Records
---
Amino acid sequence: MDTLVRTESSALTDSVSAISWASIAAGAIVAAAVSLALFALGAGLGLASVSPWAGSGVSATTFKNAAGVYLVVVAVMSSALGGYLAARLRTKWTGIHTNEVFFRDTAHGFIAWAFATVLTASVLAAAVTHIVSGAASGVPPATAQASSFNPSQVFVDRLFRTDQAATTPAATSGDNEGPRAEVLRLWTSSFSENNDLVAADRTYVARLVAAQTGISQAEAEKRVNDVITEAKAAADRARSGAAKLAFWITAALLFGAFAASLAAVEGGQLRDGTWQERRLIPRPW
């Protein structure tokens, strides 16, 4: 009958925590700092690549795709560096099977990546909040009012737009603030629910537009339909852009976690002197 003999060394090892928080914190802080530096560099490159002039600068699609790829590259580079340091700076475990060491190094890299991700998100959120609050307190009242602008007002302005040849006394007297405010309320409430105007509101808005602009009822209904279609297209572009950004962020997080774990295995094996010619596998007994 076989007996399990526990040596003093193995018993001592079991009583020691497998996590080296100091090395994890060091790797996470380095990863967060590198991420912020690379984000600042990416912001500068992005501003230098766009231009308001036609025919110069990159297109919007190219800019969005390049920004997404750069986000993934930043995540991989910073996470790999943080995971490598988290495992390379740890203390050496003695009397532990190499498979267990392999797992612990991977866990150190993954935890360092998670710590760095939370730290970077907190720093970026605090920085953005500080910048926005500082800008809001320093702007003049007219600019502050413009910053609280409702995007739906643009579509309402297009509904009540008048041509100089079709100007009517009602349109030039400035007495259309009431109808405009009413249409804005209808527009905001309807589009927040189903991205469209209900049939009754659509007919009513067309009558208001016809009365205020001097165009016929048929032309007013066509204008309402055209503006609604344009508003739907703008909402669809915003939804598509938000979805692509979410996918790029997810890809960056996944690639960052993998890079941190992989680099931590390399750093741990270099720390223990078990690096096998770039083969990330545990060394057998």
Note: Residues 149-236 form one domain.
---
Amino acid sequence: MSSAVVSTSAAQGRPFVFIEEVADVCSRPSEAELCTEGRPPQRALSTFTDTRLAGITPASRLAVRPAVEMVSSGIAAMDALTGGLPRGCLTEICGPASSGRTTLLLAALAAATQRGECCVLVDASDALDPRSAADAGIELDRLLWVRCGENSPEKSLEQLLRATDLLLESGGFGLIALDLGDLPPQAACRIPLTTWFRFRRAVEHTPTVLLAVERQSIAGSCSSLLIKLGLIKLTSSENRIREQSLDSQSLVPTHAQLLTGLEITAELVRSLDRKPVRSAEITFASKTAWGGIKNRFQSFRVSRFQKTTAQL
């Protein structure tokens, strides 16, 4: 097949035809067809172009790209905002400390394990509490916990990247979560964009959800979904503790506060369609799962009483 490029000289006012040799897929027109006396060259060129375009499929007839499968994040308000977490894509969750990053991470892992999927948590700072994970609903039998608790953030980051490469290459996981939230931003920003692009290509066309939890977005345009979290306020049970200590005449300090929940705001910064999001923002609450609060206060009072008796 030949390709023709027409350029018009502004000075001389006559067209020129340049022929470039490529692979033949249709019959090449003769020079007589291109330049025939008494026939304008433009007509011969249009006939030649129509012949070339005969084997090209119009854009309206192209196959429709299949929609990305979405799975639940474990939080109904978040699913209403984003539609869930996309499979075969990279999702970023960023926010400062106490902004709900761990809440969303544990909820996503719990939802995935309850669906019967095997999941991985690559923990860069060895910050996961297994008891809290179990209280959040995570089936620990389906969770692989990769601990990268080295002394220096650089070594922890190197272990995280190496483990992620191996996990994406092996496949078979429903969700792979990278917890970078406790790493210094200077260390996390050292991950080159080529690494994130490699992760995105490795997870593409697979049923795996790749989730990265960070203080700030560091994957750039490689992430298909970007969620920014923020803290509105903390809720505590200071008054209830104070009343309980007065009624029982215990040694519980009156200034004690027990964290009972968080009010979190979530903003959708980047969505799957890559279009600017106008004001996609929600607010949801997260409650703590303190088990045996009354027993803990009783044991606290007993230990304080024994200590006072021993001193006497």
Note: Residues 1-12, 16-26, 291-312 have pLDDT under 50 and may be disordered.
---
Amino acid sequence: MKRLRILLLVHESLVPPEDISALDERDIEEFRTEYNVYSTLHNLGHEVRVVGIGDRLTELREAIRDFEPDIAFNLLEEFSGIVTYDHYVVAYLELMRQPYTGCNPRGMMISRDKVLTKQVLAAHRIPSPRFQVIPWRRRFRTPRNLRFPLFVKSATEDASLGISQASIVENPERLRERVEFIHEETQSGALVEEYIDGRELYVGVLGNERLQTLPVWEMDFGTAHGGRSGIATRKVKWDAAYQSRHGIATGQAKDLPSGGEQRIAKLAKRIFRALYMSGYARMDLRMRPDGSLFVLEANPNPNLTYGEDLAESAESAGMSYERLLSRIVKLGLTYKPEWRLFES
């Protein structure tokens, strides 16, 4: 790939230093993804400029005007403190006719909205757990058409906010308690869905029109499962000491049923297309003991930290971290938003 001018978009509190040699691991952890991406692109010979974004787009507009980047590498996960607003930044890039990496605004908007995602998947006959939304500040009523055990989470927040082993409820009393907790903790509606007991699988997807799936990855919950298959709580995902104590790890899925990997890959591509996604994504699935599959979430622009699931899955397929980032850049350069239809 030729040398490019790359504008790296990060949250204003996560601008990585050029040199981390004087920092310890705890200092680095918060901006590890941003540093991994910055240093890798820089070492590949690209000219990389970092812009930190908070609740204004002034800095972004000025950086595009002054730096004239070939592409913006998008690592934002929120805008103005609101997770569901990150797609507005990408929409702004499109209005500026600025190529970018990752998912397009429409795909981000749909997939960030968990309820809308489930409605779209249902329209495409893609299986996901049956659900009901209990809006914030509305009177609680026990869902009539759902079977216990049920799983309760925020209808809008991500990164496992508000999720714990107590998120699985067995009766109406516990359900009311958990819904009230989610309402108070997240100030958002509560998404109540039937709990799917089974293997937790992740599959990365790369592409725009032509799609490639990465090897299927699996979460091993170790002893942190409370008698069930386990759930990906905040501690399970991010607490290294907790992971070590309970033997929690992720790795390539083994002993899948005959044809299971092909079915999973096909399903992941269907989800990607149904939600109008582009660039790269990660699909979170559950597989019951009988081999049936259910979509838990579709994640646009998933974690790109070196050594984490997406990068490790790519590595297992022979795609180094450098090649993965280069592929993501190339997909951004070749994506065709509407404004490119009017290029002369």
Note: Residues 161 and 234 are 7 Å apart (CA to CA).
---
Amino acid sequence: MEKAGPYWTACIDELCFLWGLTEENDAEHAKAARELDLFAEQFRATFPTPSADKANAVIKFVIEFVGRQNITSASPTYHYGDWLDKVIDAATRHLQASYSGANDWTDVLDRYEGLDSVPLMTVHKSKGLEYHTIIFVGLEDTALFNFEKQTDEETAGFFVAFSRARQRALFTYCASRGDRNAIAPLYQLLDSAGVKTFEKA
């Protein structure tokens, strides 16, 4: 597959990290590559065609290969409560949904990854990312409900979202959904910066 190369390399690098192998060590890097090759062969034999009713088995198959303990060790958030189980459940449901209308595994994975889709995320989740255009959905009091109590922090958060855009940023507001009195200073900043306003009847 033409675009598999970068993904394959990323998988090997991630395995080295999760398994505690050194990427710079050629022998350990080669070991991860061999294990991934073997896993791919076993996966193709076990799941030759995508099927929604096997989503749980697919996720379990991958976790057994990587090692649940290795996944848990990779992030402190997985050390508490049942957060990892919730993530696994969400991944399973997302994989099931990705099967809809898919013809093969390439289609499934493209859908799972969100190819040609618009990503939705919170302001904090958007940190470090960049897009040509961002749309801030619902710039109103309820979106920044702590604005009056934590004006500096909320303003900083607003600019985190704003600065994700390389070329263009759009902000939406719906009067029937909420007010924008508390966050009026943000609208004043946008107005003073010459941001154009469009109203739809």
Note: The CA atoms of residues 123 and 158 lie 7 Å apart.
